[in-house]
Amino acid sequence: MDVEDKLALPGSDHAEKKKVASLRALVEAEDLDAQDVDNATLRRFLRARDLDVEKASVQFLKYLRWRKALMPQGFISESDIPNELSHKEVYKQGFDKQGRPIIVYLVANHVPAGRQLDELKRFIAYMLDKSCARMPNGQEKFTCIADIHGWGYSSSDVRGYLAAIDILQNYYPERLGKVFLIHVPYIFMKVWKIMYKFLDPNTRKKFVFVEKKELKATLLADIDESQLPEKYGGKLPLVPIEQS
């Protein structure tokens, strides 16, 4: 990839392109593996740190170290996360009206009893990598429908939720488009108050609580009926994330 290609960033002005170039020079000097990362990724880290090159470089280099430690082979296979996959928590769906791939998370299916935090972290990265791989050219974000129907304290896993927030915000910055929180029981709000404190202001804005009576209309405003799960009034069946 030559210098001209590296600076070719649709949607960026000249000043932002220069900052991306500065960030690339800085991180490549520290870790040669940064040469394999595209400019769009560097731009996401830069934007997540308000275009501060120094802060973005620190976080990006931390990301490279984290990824090497979590997935030495460069990816996570289904054999690395058998327990998490057995719960059938996460499903792929279609695409929203902005072209963002949709995932459906059945929160109550999560089983914290006996779970290993390291495997859960691998599963979170696996799910996010799968979602990112489905993004069409020019799209950098995904949409999530988090269905909390049937959730109770036996499903609660605050430590796991905070691990997911940490991974999403620090290692997959600017990837989340929107989260629809649906069928939210009142008791979940106690856990939400804890989670909320760990969400940065920009991420908080992406979580939308949907009332039951407004569910279909709210989802259809963002997602065409042909791309919506059957269980929410659409036409697509749920497909386990590992089949994507």
Major sheet strand order: 5-4-3-2-1-6
Shape: globular
Beta content comes to: 5-15%
The rounded Rg comes to 19 Å
Structural class: alpha/beta
Biggest pleated-sheet summary: 6 strands, mixed
Average pLDDT, rounded to a whole number, is 94
Total E-strand runs? 6
Helix content: 40-55%
Total helix count? 10
Distance between the termini: 30 Å
N to C succession of SSEs: HHHHHEEHEHEHHEHE
The unreliable regions are: none
Q: What does this protein look like?
A:
The chain has 244 residues and is an alpha/beta fold. It is built from ten helices and six strands. It has a six-stranded mixed β-sheet with strand order 5-4-3-2-1-6. Helix 2 (14-30) crosses helix 3 (39-48). The longest helix has 18 residues, at 53-70. This is CRAL-TRIO domain-containing protein. Residues 78-240 form the CRAL-TRIO domain. InterPro entries: CRAL-TRIO_dom (IPR001251), CRAL/TRIO_N_dom (IPR011074).
